[in-house]
Amino acid sequence: MKRKSFLKLGLAAALSLTTILAGCGEKKEEGASNASTVTPATAASAVASTGIKNPRVSFVYIGPPGDGGYTYQHDQGRLYMEKELGIKAKAVENVPESADAERIITQLAQESDIVFTTSFGYMDYTLNVAKKFPKVKFFHCSGYKTSDNMSTYFGKNYQASYLSGIAAGKATKKNLIGYVGAFPIPEVIYNINAYTLGAQSVNPAVKVMVVWSNTWYDPATEKQAAISLLDKGADVLMAYQDSPATIQAAQERGAFAGGNDSDMSRFAPDNYLTNPVWNWGPYYVKAVKSVIDGTFKSEQYSGDMKDNTVALAPFGNKVSDETKKLIADKQKAIVDGTFDVFTGPILDQSGATKVADGKKLTLDEVLGMNWFVKGIDGTIPK
């Protein structure tokens, strides 16, 4: 997922290669045949017995930092790491989850000490390259495969999805919420479920309609999907996408909406509610420091709201004080560990009990979720 699904293939024939030194600067467009040509990092690698003094760091992005969402947040994390550690990293953006990814990761491994691959579909390609370059450390976002020199990292963004659902449940007047899902993979499914449970916690009459865009970043397609939900009567929208298209569609119709991955309030401040956001900077600092000081150990890291890997975006202008307090109280319970999003009783669409009263799903069960909770109108394609 993001995280990203292997379903997203052939993102763009042309890849952008960027050596990024500060901010989301200009992109140098290259043809696909030249996409893996990478300028050597300016920092020399000084290998010591305790680690690597000045590691060369590279990132592989699924989209452009200018998407305003998922890749933007990873890029903000990179910038934070650069500032904290005084290290300049480079990034290759718009890399499809295909064999091209392995080619690009291979070249980066030849010229880097640390490689971050930020999308789910890069998992096997990252592992293949890690086996060939045992001295390079690899960090893969959202996957589940590791090796001696390869870790994974992600977070419990469903915690913030639940809180976003509370805002939606309080905002809707028609008790009908529309949700634009990217791909029917567990990551998207469990976030839709968490959002629905949050909305139902303050408004049991809420129904959530789901449509699939089968895109991560295609504003035109995502906007059309959002409009289709508005046409069916939804007065609140949510989207698990990388673009603000759903929020913009809601604004045009006078509906409320939330986005994904980053603070998208600037796109429609009066129609915006809130949404989950990622905060990757502290993890990137931790990961790079582990290589610098020689303490790297392969792990599967899962951040949450307690360590601030996952957070909630600032509220839109029209979110009430009552709603803000409800969310603050529930967030405190999540952080304190006194509330878990997927605690039973939870029923599926058919009304069958999926989580018994007082029981809660394990993280592995959440990460493998392939069913919708009661109150969702939509199907999960097989």
Describe the structure.
The chain is an alpha/beta fold. The chain is built from 10 helices and 19 strands. It has helices at 70-85, 99-111, 123-132, 158-171, 186-202, 219-231, 245-253, 281-292, 321-336, 363-367, and strands at residues 16-18, 28-29, 47-48, 51-52, 57-60, 90-93, 114-117, 137-141, 150-155, 176-181, 207-212, 236-239, 256-258, 276-278, 300-303, 310-312, 346-347, 353-355, 376-377. The strands form 5 sheets. An 8-stranded mixed beta sheet has the order 2-1-6-5-7-8-9-15, sandwiched between helices. Helix 3 links the parallel strand 7 and strand 8 (137-141). It starts with 15 loop residues before the first strand and ends in a 5-residue tail after the last strand. Residues 4-49 have low confidence and may be disordered.
Total number of strands: 19
Total of helices: 10
- What is the terminal-to-terminal distance? 18 Å
Q: What share of residues are in beta strands?
A: 15-25%
Radius of gyration: 21 Å
Low-confidence segments: 4-49
Overall pLDDT metric: 89
Order of helices and strands: EEEEEHEHEHEEHEHEHEHEEHEEHEEHE
Q: Estimate percent helicity.
A: 25-40%
* Alpha-beta content class: alpha/beta
Please give the order of strands in the largest beta sheet: 2-1-6-5-7-8-9-15
What general outline do the C-alpha atoms trace? globular
Largest sheet: 8 strands, mixed
